[in-house]
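lol ok so funny story. i was supposed to be doing the assay writeup but got distracted and ended up predicting the structure for this chain instead. priorities right. anyway since i did it might as well share w the group, maybe its usefull for someone
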Amino acid sequence: MTQLGAIVGSFGAARRGACPTLHEPMQTGDGLLARLRVTRRVLAPRQLLEIARLAQIHGNGLVEITARGNLQVRGLRPDTAKIFAEAASQIVEVESGLVIDLSPIAGNDPQERADPRALAGRIGEAAKAFAGRLGPKVSVVLDGAGQVSMHRLKADIRLVAQDGEHWVITLGGSKPQVVDEDAAIATTIAVLGALAAIGPDTRATDLFAGPVGRDADADPVQDWRAKVTLAQGHCRAVALPFGQMESAALVALCDRAESAGLSTLRLAPDHTLLVDHAPDHFIEGAARLGFITDPNDPRCRISACIGNKGCASGLIAARKIAARLAPNVPPGQHLHVSGCSKGCAHPRSTDMTLVGRADGIGLVINGRAGDTPRRLLDEAALFAGTGPFQDGQ
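and the output, tada:
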């Protein structure tokens, strides 16, 4: 940490990222997008049902669960966004400030090496001193190393429990180091302080760059479990295909949850809901509604943004293409369908990427959406036997 002062003094401006919030939605191709960081990522079926109904009334009826386990509502309008925000605020408690990601079953996971909640509380309290000076995308991931994997969430500062007293800390792209809890807190606050001092354009990778070409979170394969064990009982996983679902399907799912006497839903990474104590008949009903309930579902092997159906930058109907290609993606492979070269749905390398371009659909092998395509395809070719993953290729 002794070099932080020098870094702060010499660092120039970098980049700025924007994130939508409930009260400050972001303009997209299909209207305004509001994001709800639900406190502790836990809500009752009735709460999610009411949010979904609000999305039907004030938006275009599309609800998303992000890769980090946040709720998003699409298609809001300038005259409805404020009404939606005020109504949603009465339904769920929403977090603000520094993003600190925990497992949705933290403290209730018999397999985790340490409960990260107290550590998160101490970091969150200390980070209030930097309010308004950290970039909106700056995040801390606290991983108790339990059943719900947090390893593919991007983080400026990542803390993974080694045991009950020690944490493996990674700052930006630096080499992981083992520290005790006090050192983990001190280091985290020092780095956040440096980022705040430089300005909101700064990320930890600017201070602690990794080796050129490093892709720390290279494994793209969805690794959520169909069932996870709680200290008492269990959760069952229900995922939204490509992170998105119509409000009507969510309303129906929540109605079934209430009818089954279920009381707790947990927003989880990988666009997933964990449903406490869900019986088999509930999961079977969720599958009939179009949700993913099996980790072997081929849709788990694809990442896809909303494409030109909801983004001004999108040049192809990414999720429509993804749904049609899903049965062709073999186990152990991953396909990324991106509306444009930004690659928002999956910023890391994948086995194969299809990217919308003005001159067609670019095919990238073992790379990212922004890489130079190996060749160009048209949509007709994708579904005529000449597209990707034909004959296992």
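The longest helix spans residues 181-198. The CA atoms of residues 16 and 354 lie 27 Å apart.
back to the writeup now i swear
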